[in-house]
Amino acid sequence: MELLDRLSGQLQALDAHSLIRRRRTVDSPCGPRVQVDGRELLAFCSNDYLGLANHPQLVAALRDGAARYGAGSGASHLISGHARPHALLEDRLADFVGAHLERPRTLTFCTGYMANLALIAGLTAGEREADIFSEALNHASLIDGARLSRARVHVYPHADLAALEAMLKASHATTKLVVTDSVFSMDGDLAPLPALLALCEQHNAWLVVDDAHGFGTLGARGHGALEHFDLRSPYLVYMGTLGKAAGVGGAFVAAHETVIETLLQKARPYIFTTAAPPALAHALLTSLDLIEGDEGVQRRAHLQALVAQLDDAHSGLQLQRWQRLPSATAIQPILIGDNADTLRAGAALYAQGLWVGTIRPPTVAPGTARLRVTLSAGHRATEVAQLSAAINALEKEAP
Prior knowledge:
The protein is 43% helix and 18% strand. It has helices spanning 2-16, 56-69, 77-81, 84-97, 112-124, 140-149, 161-170, 193-202, 225-229, 257-266, 268-271, 278-292, 294-309, 339-351, 381-397; strands at residues 33-36, 39-44, 104-109, 130-135, 152-156, 175-181, 206-210, 236-241, 251-256, 323-324, 331-337, 354-359, 369-374. A hairpin with a 2-residue loop joins strand 1 and strand 2. Helix 2 (56-69) packs antiparallel against helix 12, helix 4 (84-97) packs parallel to helix 12 (278-292) and helix 5 (112-124) packs parallel to helix 6. It is globular, with a radius of gyration of 21 Å. 47% of the residues are buried.
């Protein structure tokens, strides 16, 4: 069959360039130590940054939520699927990040991907003149949201404030959005949010911040990138995910109440999607308490100590040819370059019981394939030392 032959040829081309992706099946709860395809592994590839995904209080809260509200919501939020836990969670999230927004309100979503599609398309819906200024290293969901919006899209180079300023000055659009990750998911570095916000305020543009990898981990109380940089502005539109540091699932958008009402009325990915199970929202109320409380403070401190350990002369990374990209976050990329070399490094680590993500195009640019080490507050210092020693040895042995 010609159609199948065409697809087979495309798959063979991916394989020839070491770009085939393969799934593994986990037989245990998410955590640093997992059972995968019958093997016990030490995982450095999860986004469970605070180690909350299998926290006993969260498990108990999820069980309680299911007992109270059942397994599913049954409908979209605007029909009959908006349950009491959804309402309580939105109010709690508005308090959680609201100090950085004017007249804050939130809207919850099933995933961060959906939230980004909704907020970008929703803010430009019906606008004849709209310009989106998108960071070059933005997550795929932000890129796809910009495409879905049908607005004009301008991509500015990574962290290049001068280029963005020139683009904003040249724009005559009635609606302007500057869209950026806060923590870049494959590089681990932080966007210059204070300078970006200043440009947005100067040029009357929204600053859309995807804080997927900062929510829960950044800021003294885990309130994310806005707390980390001590930002406050009515120009901010903030997206946070709840399946990474928060340990459960879903996402939310927080902004001025008028922005949120606009999304509720216009954002198709929100209007036409079945609401997430209420039990998840119920469990997330406990997650926010953990993030904000003393335990969250301790977990963030431990996580930062593990990040610092990678610089240690004895128990850290000592690379000569591979490059550890500069990052002070839980995301610690090690640039290798070649796709096949990166796959070989990942396979060698896996054979030693160490599970590390191997990231290749199109997730990253050609020639920049890398190991993506992600640390968790659930890791021990001895485990990070074990990983560092294995990577150091692999680099010395690599051709």
